[in-house]
Amino acid sequence: MALPARIDDSAPPYGTLVFDCDSTLSSIEGIDELAGPRKPEIAALTERAMAGEVPLEAVYGKRLELLRPSRAAIEALGAQYVATALPHAVELVRALRSLGKRVCILSGGIRQAVFALADHLGVDPSDVHAVDVFHGRDGSYAGFDDESPLARAGGKLEVLRSIARVDRRGGVVLIGDGATDLEAAPSARRFIAYGGVVRRKDVFARAVVTCDAPDLAALLPLLVATDELEVLAQDKQHHPLLVAARVAR
Ligand SMILES: [Mg+2]
Fold first, then answer.
1. Considering its fold, how many domains does the chain have in total?
2. Which of 17, 138, 154, 162 has the fewest CB atoms within 10 Å around its CB?
């Protein structure tokens, strides 16, 4: 894994908030959930990639080739992402968007399933970056986009760089749990190692800012400036989030 030598950090405000999906916005690892009885075998491959022991591309195609998920299986996974969204995910995205921020999902997961979570959270489909899978007319698996940078190590860095390039409002913050997120940290103004689902030791050791509360409300003060918190406090709809943020800290 090409680990960043040094990670800089600068305080909010930011223009764009970029969230990883699996084990960050949702408590599952999507591809593992497609595995059925083969889950232990597939999960072991995923874990090695997320811990940075092997490059992502070494497991990406292999896992999908073993599972060959149908269109119906991907749809079911989308519903599972929604059902396992972390506490206050919806409220956090709503608050960030009300402040005029761009909210993106950057995932090595399957785009069609991540779309379902994005829709639930109120993230624009054009702000979802993930990997396409293809299906035949009968809904059977027909491969994945093996050109996607998100199916290989270092790919999140590339995509995050292009997201940062169009940000005009204070730069990008990245929130994620895995080695592939840590790799992308150099193109963010802040990287938050998120351990509310899985606390990965090597990722936490390298990150300047960390959070291991199992409630996404705890991220709020790390993502917005004090004056932005005051703006949120003026609107009643954000009060449950603000209270939860205080409690979760
Ligand atoms: Mg993850």
1. 1
2. 138
Local structure of 89: helix, strand or coil: helix
What pLDDT does residue 249 have?
75
Show the domain range for 214.
Answer: 16-248
40 DSSP β-pair partners: none
Candidates 9, 22, 132, 212; catalytic one = 22
Active site residue 20: yes
10 in a domain, yes or no? no
* Separation of alpha carbons 219 and 197, rounded Å: 14
Residues of the chain with pLDDT under 70: 1-5
pTM here is 0.95
State yes or no: is 22 an active-site residue: yes
Q: Is residue 196 one of the residues assigned to a domain?
A: yes
The string of pLDDT tens digits covering residues 32-60 is 999 989 999 999 999 999 888 999 998 99
CA 195 – ligand 1 centroid, Å: 10
Q: Shortest CA distance to 117 belongs to which of 156, 90, 145?
A: 90
